[in-house]
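Fig. S4 source data, part A: sequence.
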Amino acid sequence: SLEAETGQATGWKQTGSLSIATNPDRLTHIRRQASLSQAFGIGAEEISVSNAAEKWPLMRSDDLIGAVYSPSDGRVSPSDICAALIKGAKSQGLKVFEDTPVTGIRTENGRVAAVQTAQGEISCETVVNCAGIWGRSIATMVGAVAPLHACEHFYLLTELMDSVTAPLPTLSDHDGHLYLRDEGGGLLIGCFEPQGKALDIETLPEDFAFDLLPEDWDHIEPILANAMHRIPELEQTGVKMLLNGPESFTPDDRFLLGESPELRGFFLGCGMCSVGIATGGGAGRALAEWIIDGEPSMDLWPVDIRRFVPAQNTLRTLRERSPETLSLHYAVSFPGRQHQTARNLRLSPLHSRLENAGAEFAERMGWERPRWFNPENKPTAPELSFEKPGWHSLHAEEHRAAREAVVLFDQSTFGKLLVQGRDAESVLQRLCANDISKADRRVVYTAMLNKHGGYESDLTLMRLDADSFLLVTGTGQPVRDKDWIRRNLNPDEFVTVTNVTGAYAVISIAGPNSRKLLSRVSLDDFSNYGFPYYTHRTIEVGPAMVRAARLSYVGELGWELYIPSESALPVFDALITVGDDLGLKLAGVEALSSLRIEKGYCAWGHEIGPDDTPLQAGLEFAVKFKKPDSFIGREALLQQKMEGISRRLVMLTVTDFEAHPHGGEPIWWNKSLVGRTTSGTFGHTLGCAVMLGYISCVDTKLDTMLNTGNFEVEIACRRFPAHVTLDALYGPKAIATRK
């Protein structure tokens, strides 16, 4: 609608897009994309190689094994888009100052007060940092985190080609690291090459704006060879220009959006990772809604600035990571893919012990967490696969040990917030849906909800003394949770929130033999009577004093031990030395994931988030509507309870061994699309693929759907019959969640 609103052309052309595959993994990748697009109402479909060749006559196709076509895709002119946006904004009273360097940002009482420029100061309550490759420098002015770094980014324009006579779909040859499209009677050849080049923006002239970087033909030569392979006519075509410009990339290839937790009124909309035009309309709208309404209108956690910590914002870290981020932009999106650069930023006190025990680590928010253990150094190729990875058997052993014996998880990366002060209890009662007044000796699982009843976080809570509470949240959530608590404090309330994540290690013991194991290193009473479910207290374990909480995230008997970091190694060693005959195994997050999915336990960012309510997730047991204090989201939940829910979290199983779900797969009922999965894995106890997902129950009642059956799950464009239920298929009905 932009051109119609402003009268300024945007250059929009609906040409479609064509993705091609030259190997089975890439084919699975684009098929999964096509399936996921169905769940979001975007038309994309698998087409034959011959059909793909007809849509791109210049393309060599004899080495292709498949293709996906999306007819609604298109392209625009970036300069025209900017002109249209500025013209439309000016018509609404906006003022635009070009060639106006920002020299500082003035703050008052913890929020933005003014922007200082070379031409004077502009008073304001809100600043939006859309400074592109300079975004980090602008954020540094106010002490905010904005982890992005510039890389050199290349594309090439050819001379005129007689064969280019009509608009072509944008061609994605990602196995060749390429994208191609017609441009000015020739071709535009762009790339995300395997070895990206970081750029030090400090070397750029101060007046660098719309300039280009030096050509680098040696660097781009392998990509040109790929392009000539795909488009043979390029061997006889001249090059008009090689363009090299700076582009910013973040540590996880997703942009930065939202209000900084460091400064009120300071918003970010930068680090676009070369998808600024493609996502600019949606990101701009979402950011505008966030500023105006004080909250986003949708779940934006994947791009929320609060997913990062300062350790991920150092120049050394960003300079190492950004070229890898660029190089993986077109990589096959295997489940579990890990970055290789800028690792070991945050280490558990147990890291060296786990490494010596054969741990393979995964990164989360800068932390290194064991994925699985391979003490005998068994072959694990292929480690990356859409089907069974090479470590499948190692994962299975850890999974079975939790069900049949006992396992030890290092969960020291759990976020831990210490909430203290005169008003701590009343504040937490207002923020938490459960009744936290009973947390003296009880562990309280609770949600913190937004005003719409959606999850801002889920956590467990323990009272340490009259005015102190320990909140335990997911590895990726402490920055977000601390920010949520602080922004919801009233001016007259006295409460402090301290992130103490690094001060405590967490060792989780789970499995039928967990009680026996703990009894060998502690004189405490671990019986049902002596240590009831969901209680906590301080005990002795080996040579240390620890806080023990009886709960587990795997659906088995278990405890979590919160240990001062300086005592973590002695406690770990004490446990390891007495567990051999009990079948004790070290286990990683892959086993933790499959165990919790079998039990139907929810995970933040998968089953629960800002758009999901406890009623939809089947977690109403953790909401206390009748507690003395009201809580944020209560009215919205009561209304939803009265009107009924529009969708519900369910558990799905598929017995076909060719089904390999990973989350994000469409769910069909009676040939109608009704939802998508949120998590998926192989359930080693159940012996089949197991998933969690939401299904819509607007058009048909949920009971009718469940009783009728006829469910299918679509995985990479193939549908598999599925069994769907509200209850976990392993053990008693799940009654708790944790990260």
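Fig. S4 source data, part B ends here. Residues 521 and 577 are 10 Å apart (CA to CA).
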